Input
Amino acid sequence: MIYFSTNKSSIPVSLKKATLEGLAPDGGLYIPSEIPRFSTEEIKLLEGACFNNIAFAIAKKFIGSDIPPDQLSDMIDNCYNFDAPLVQLDSNTFIEELFCGPTLAFKDYGARFLARLTGFFAAEEQKLITVLVATSGDTGSAVAYGFQGIANTRVVLLYPSGKVSPLQEQQLTTAGSNVYALEVKGDFDDCQRMVKEAFVDPGLNRSLILTSANSINISRLIPQSFYFAWASLQLKEQYGYSNPLFSVPSGNYGNLTAGVLAKRMGFPIGHLIAASNTNDSVTRYVKSGRYDPRPTITTLSTAMDVGNPSNFARLRYFYHNDHVSMSGDITGIAVSDEETRATIRSVDDQFGYLMEPHTAVAYCALERYRAIADIAEKAAVVLSTAHPVKFLEAIEETLNKKIQIPLNLQELMKKKKSATLISSEYKELASFLNELDK
Ligand SMILES: *Cc1c(COP(=O)(O)O)cnc(C)c1O
Output
């Protein structure tokens, strides 16, 4: 399989190059030259298969012979040693809990796979890859724990001092081994500026091979299709539901794009609901065909506060820039903070189920879609992207009650924090990176 840039002016590359580069030289995002298709018979054979077997079948189509099957299979078992439970709320509404990985958010699915592919390709090239990331929280922790202990890789992550939650800071600073945390005396924009400067610093790039691990990397996107495929087959196998709706809490739209991939591959997936908070650039585009991104607004579902989503370029490409064709598969629904809070309360009342704000946005969007489209009987999967404990303050304040923390988290909170405090001047980052090999 070869990979193209959405901007079409870079030469097509191998998965290895696309993975190690991240962004194409023309500034576009890599996409597979064609979306692999599963025949009806192949899908039938996968019904009842376990998560990792489905993941392997999909990965193999995207990877071809670039990774030997035995190694790919081991890699997948090593990535996904946790479940994606489907919790049934009522007869036809399911929550797919994607927060059972080490950092308690769905970003573990993409980051762990990316880390292993990066390690494999780096070993093939006999190189040491340095992953440099600026983070405001969840991406950094998934990357830290994803790359932890992966040979031929190391991670340097920058986070703004005092501007991440105590739990996030714990996750960012305790991975150890090949993961280095830099606590920057500045804000997230400072961290991002410093990282950008490092990528274009010729002196640094002579001695280090730098790469980023942000959500535009194709090897983070492919694995996100696994849980769409798995849920769609489970619903069929266990409950006899075909083509369920999927409601996807969206920020950079990587998750939703992975849903489009799974649907195109031929898995029994129905309509997709792109659930956003008030950062609704894509929702407005799907309705009007006009794309005018606006400055980011801060909301209760902070991980989805994105004014100009990076994966929109891929979505657009897949629908040939045609919003009418896109709206055949996707409906965008924007949810306010007030509705999000009301949803957290009503789901707690009705089902005794604790929902964090991002999942609540998707649940609320599903309810609104069912009301508009008058299809209350159709089965639906709501993707739950984070464990409630990650957004404890927001939930406790909304429900007006205290919530118990699960035990493994208490263990995490006891681990010793290890971070290097630096100023927001680029030269401090450069000298830290130069010292790494000394
Ligand atoms: C990153 C994130 C999202 C948004 O996912 P995208 O793929 O960027 O659309 C939603 N919820 C949580 C908890 C996240 O961390």
